[in-house]
Amino acid sequence: MRLVVTGGGTGGHVYPALEVARAARARGWSVRYLGSERGQEGPACLRERLPFEAFPSEPLVSLRTPRGWRAAARLLRAVGMARRSLRCDPPDFVFATGGYSAAPVLRAAMALRLPFGLHEQNAVPGRTIAMAGPKAAFVGTVFRATEARLPGCRVVRTGMPVRGALREAAARGAASGPTASSWWEAPKAPPPSTRSPWRPARA
């Protein structure tokens, strides 16, 4: 099984995508990450020793400024580069967590008619997920309320992909530390004072 993972710009998109990549590699799948030159995904993939290919994508906020036109030009260039990459080494599936890094890869996947799935980490879907969602095999979500904001999408409430190291740390803490209920026990009241809190008014 060959999997392409994409998503990023910020850690909120990158680390859930990396956790899915880790799980896929543990199953023996061939995994590579496609992202942005300026996002957090490049250094993260380097630490994970995960094959990474970068494109010159950046956030597209508005087309009313020179910066917006530059971002649009880079997005179009990134789409072309992503198409060439996916055509030369076509995956069996593309998994995206959103963000501006994922936009050109998803556009390329749709143009090449490659199957893809999405994951939205927030209650309100981002632009990339909302635009690609209707054509996705599924859209994984964390919050129940997200489904109403994704009309025409096959929504599956999957929860958040959490790093294995955090799960292990939580398990160790639960085994050795206080129970969950003990954190919510009401504090004991202090012993009653024999001294009156009131001072007599001076004449």
Question: Largest beta sheet, briefly?
Answer: 7 strands, parallel
The CATH C-level class name: Alpha Beta
Count of structural domains: 1
Amount of beta strand: 15-25%
The CATH superfamily is known as: Glycogen Phosphorylase B
Shape: globular
In angstroms, what is the radius of gyration? 24 Å
Low-confidence stretches: 180-184, 196-203
CATH level-two architecture: 3-Layer(aba) Sandwich
Which key phrases capture this entry?
alpha/beta; 6 helices; disordered C terminus
Question: What would you say about this model in short?
Answer:
With 203 residues, the chain is of the alpha/beta class. The protein has one domain (2-165): Rossmann fold (3-Layer(aba) Sandwich), CATH 3.40.50. Helices cover 37% and strands 15% of the residues.
Structure description:
The chain has 203 residues and is of the alpha/beta class. The chain starts with a strand and ends in a 27-residue tail after the last helix. Helix 2 (41-48) links the parallel strand 2 and strand 3. Helix 3 (66-88) crosses helix 4. The chain has helices at 11-26, 41-48, 66-88, 102-111, 127-132, 164-176; strands spanning 2-6, 30-36, 52-55, 93-96, 116-120, 139-141, 155-157. It has a single domain (2-165), classed as Rossmann fold (3-Layer(aba) Sandwich), CATH 3.40.50.2000. Strands 3-2-1-4-5-6-7 form a 7-stranded parallel beta sheet, with helices on both faces.
Secondary structure: elements and pairs:
Blueprint: E1 2-6, H1 11-26, E2 30-36, H2 41-48, E3 52-55, H3 66-88, E4 93-96, H4 102-111, E5 116-120, H5 127-132, E6 139-141, E7 155-157, H6 164-176
Parallel strand pairs: 1-2, 1-4, 2-3, 4-5, 5-6, 6-7
